[in-house]
Amino acid sequence: MLSIFETIKSRISANSYDPARKLSDEEISELIELATQAPSAFNGQNWRFVAVRSEEAKRRLLSAAYGQQKVADAAVTFIVCGKLDTHHTLAAALKPSLDQHILSEDLYQGWIGAAQRMYQDNASFQRDEAVRSASLAAMTLMLAAQGKGLVSCPMIGFNPEAVAESFDLKAEDVPVMLVTVGHPGPDNWPKKPRKPVAEVLSFT
Which intervals hold domain Nitroreductase (predicted)? Predict the structure, then answer.
């Protein structure tokens, strides 16, 4: 098994998948269970995943993704959504932490109140939080896939309105990105070089 460091450094954004190799429902569910270990503000877990795996659903998504073949060839493409309603769903999301005495009643109520004040009347902040949470979950999903010997690719090349309509997303679901996952095909590029650390890091 790869170490976390090897997993991070070996991950590529794949364009080539083996269309003959599938993933079971259990394998797909395990990937999402790992993805949901990502952090989120207040532990609100304001994300949703749609696993597009049937041939009929892939055809619909292929159209909304401007014909990018990897959507059809990958074992599954996840529509990764961030949710705008954290302040409405936070109490339920935090209840297990309260029940397990991780959070006190005062802290539980304090976080719920803080989220209400921060998000209730601030649509742009709700959207920012949805994008942040979905992006963290998507990266965790891709690392989970890499750790299982799969490849993945984040995709921003899609029509969000068409995706929302075709897959019956709710008004509070923001389709942040697509993530293709599957077994590698023969034509993937090697890892592309990164900028030197000295170019992107400063110390103060």
Answer: 8-183
